Amino acid sequence: MKKQTFLSFSVLLLATQLSFTSAQVKQDEQLNPIVQNFVTEVQNNSQLEVMAHQLLDGIGPRLIGTPEMLAANKWTAEKMKSWGVEAELQQFGTWKGWQRGTTHVDMVYPRVKSLVATQLAWSPTTKKPIEVEVVTLPNVSTKAEFDRWLPTAKGKIVLMAQYQNIGRSDEQIKEFATPELYEKLKAEKAKAGKDFREFVKNIGYDNTTLPEALEKAGVAGIALSNWTGIMGANRIFGAKTQKIPMFDIELEDYGMLYRLAESGAKPRIEVDTQSKVLPEAPSFNTVGIIKGKEKPEEYVILSAHLDSWDGAQGATDNGTGVITMLETIRILKKYYPNNKRTIIVGLWGSEEQGLNGSRGFVSDHPEIMKGVQAVFNQDNGTGRVVEISGQGFVNSYDYIGRWLSAAPKSVRDQIKTSFPGMPGGGGSDHASFVAAGVPGFSLSSLNWGYFGTTWHTTKDTYDKIVFDEVKNNVILTATLAYMASEDPEFTNREKRVLPTNEKGETVQWPEQKEPIRSSKDFK
Questions:
Q1: 17 has a pLDDT exceeding 50
Q2: Residue of 431, 287, 441, 424 whose CA lies nearest to 351
Q3: What's the whole-number mean pLDDT along residues 21-30?
Q4: Of 477, 486, 509, nearest in space to 496 by CA
Q5: 284: nearest Cα among 89, 428, 98, 61
Q6: Are 21 and 49 in contact (CB under 8 A)?
Q7: Which of 4, 190, 376, 433 has its CA 20 to 30 A from that of 339?
Q8: Percent residues over pLDDT 70 in the chain
Q9: What letter does residue 152 receive in the DSSP assignment?
C-alpha cells in the first residue's frame, strides 16, 4: 500500500474513532466540569495508541527477570515523569535472568516442513541446531512400566502433551454438527482429556515432575502443544527443565508429528532454540505519585500489572491495563491539579507468578495501607468495564455508588454492580489489597475472547486491542479516582459476614500472603 493511501486511511480511521467515542457521551449531559475535561481529553487527545505501540511493538513482552521487563519499568517511569508525575522503580525481589532468542523447528524427515514453534519462558538453549527423532509417550499404565521405557527415550525429542484428535473449536462444532454428532464429539473430547490426566497420574508424575524425569533420562528436548481450543492460539508458560529445551508446537504441526511417530515413520526434526541465561535480575514495581494537597497521607491507587508471559506481546494481559492507568494519571495530572488525596499509580511486576509485585508493595508499605481510600485495578483484557464488585466490604455500596454516579451515563450504564460481594482471593492484584483489609476493586471488563484467544497465548498482540473500549475505561477510572480523592469521608472497611461453603464451614476472609521474592522459591 502506498504511503499516501495509508495516511489517508489512518486519518479516516482516527476520525471514525473520535466520532464513535464522542457519540457515547451525549452532548446535553451535564457532567462535573472536571469529569467533562476528562471526557474531552480522551476524545480529542488520546495517547493510548502511541503508548501501546511503544510498549508492545517497541519493548515487547515483559517476562519477569528479562531485560525487556526492566526496559518497561524504566519506560513507564520516564513516561510519567514527562507529564510531571513523580515516579520511581521500587525493588521487591529478584528473579532468574533470561532473554528470549530465536526459535526454529523444522521437520526434516520423512519430508521437509517448517513448524510453528515457540520456546517456553526460561527454556535452556540448544547452543547449536540439533537433529533428532521424535517419539510419543508410551502406552503404559503403571510407574514401573513407564520407568522401564524412559531409557529408550534418551537422545530423542518427546511429545509430552495430549494429542488433540479434532482441531476445531467447540463453537464451530456446535454450529455445524448435528445435535447427535455434537454430543458424540463432545463426549469423545471429554473422555480423551480424562484418559490423559489419568495416564499421567498412573505413571506417577505431574506437569512439573514429568519433565524433570525426562531430562534426567537424557532426552534431547521436550515438545508441548498447550492448545487453547481456539484455532491458532497456544499458551506459553515456563520451562520445567534445567539443561534441555522445552518448546511449544502449534496444534496442527504437533498433531502431524504425533501421528507420524505413532505410525512408525520415525519423524526427525531440527531444533534451534537460542536464548541467554543472565545474572539474577532485580524485580521492580514502577510507582508514580501525585502528592495530595489536603490529605497527603490518604491514598487512591491506580493498579495494573506490567509483567506478562512472553509468547506474544502481552497486549490484553496486561498492556491494556497499563496504558489505561498511564492515560488516567496523565489526564488527572493535567485536569485535577489540586487533588485532595495522594494518587498513586502501581504498575506491578511478577503478577503472573503469584501477585508478587503487589503483595510486595502491600507488605513493604504498611504506612500507606492504613491510609488507602480505594484501589482500582484493571487486568482482564481490552473490553469496556461491565462489572464492579464490593469485594466483601459492607459499605462499599455507598461510596462506590457515589463515585460511579459522576461518570457519564453511557459509561456507568454498562456496569453491573454487586454489593457487598465476595472478597477476591487471587487472580489479579486487587486481591493483594483485599487480603490486607484494604478496599481494592477490580474493574472487570468484557472479555472479547480473552480467555480463549489472548490470555497467555501466542496471539496476545497489539491488533487485539479495541481502543474505543479502552478509552471508555480511562474515563471511568479517572472519574472514580477523582471522586474517591474528593470524597469528604474516608472509606469504611467493615467486612461482611461470609457465608458457609458446601461443607457447612464459614468461608474465611483471604489471608494476606508474603510475595515470592526470589525465583529460587518459585515452583
A1: no
A2: 431
A3: 62
A4: 509
A5: 89
A6: no
A7: 433
A8: 95
A9: G
- Report DSSP state, residue 375: E
H-helix or E-strand containing 252?
A: helix 251-262
Q: For residues 126 and 272, is the Cβ–Cβ distance under 8 A?
A: yes
Q: Packing angle between helix 33-45 and helix 467-486, nearest 10 degrees?
A: 160
Distance, in Å, from the CA atom of 308 to the CA atom of 443, rounded to the nearest integer, reads 19
Task: HSE, CB side, 13 Å, CA atoms: give it for residue 131.
Answer: 8
**495 Cβ partners below 8 Å, 6+ apart?**
392, 393, 394, 423, 437, 509
Task: For residue 97, give the amino acid letter.
Answer: G
Helix-strand-coil split of the chain, %, nearest 5: 40, 25, 35
245 half-sphere exposure, CB direction, 13 A CA radius: 31
- Tell me, what's the pLDDT at 26? 62
> Can you read off the three cell numbers belonging to residue 75?
519506560
For position 323, what pLDDT does the model report? Answer: 98
Confidence (pLDDT) at 5: 37
Contact yes or no for 119/245 (Cβ under 8 A): yes
DSSP string, 215-243: HHTT-SEEEE--B-SSTT-BB--B---SS
Per-residue confidence at 25, pLDDT binned at 50, 70, 90? low
C-alpha cell at 220: 534431547
As a three-state string, the secondary structure of 436-463 is CCCCEEECEECCCCHHHHHCCECCCCHH
pLDDT grade for 22, boundaries at 50, 70 and 90:
very low
Q: Where are the alpha helices (DSSP H) in 53-178?
A: 67-82, 143-149, 170-176
Ramachandran assignment for 211, one of left (phi > 0), alpha (psi -120 to 50 degrees), beta (any other): alpha
Q: Which of 310, 249, 307, 312 has its CA nearest to residue 453?
A: 312
C-alpha cell at 275: 536464548
Strands 385-389 and 444-445: antiparallel
Residue 453, C-alpha cell as written in the block: 484467544
What is the C-alpha separation between 483 and 191, in angstroms, rounded? 52
What is the average pLDDT value for the chain, to the nearest integer?
94
Cα torsion 45, 49, 53, 55 to 10°: value is: 80
Where residue 24 falls among pLDDT bands split at 50, 70, 90?
Answer: low
